[in-house]
Amino acid sequence: xxxxxxxxxxxxxxxxxxxxxxxxxxxxxxxxxxxxxxxxxxxxxxxxxxx
Length: 51
Fold this sequence. Notes:
By secondary structure, the protein is an all-beta fold. The protein contains no helices and three strands. The protein has a domain at 13-45. The chain has strands spanning 16-20, 26-29, 43-45.
């Protein structure tokens, strides 16, 4: 039994979630990031819903 959805999806609206297009590293930040710290690739904001 899962007590709440926070264990599955720890989404916090005050943080932006980014994923690197090249190495798939994920990171969070309060500010907009564009460059991956691990490989230098481009980051996508994955907190924004896509259709």
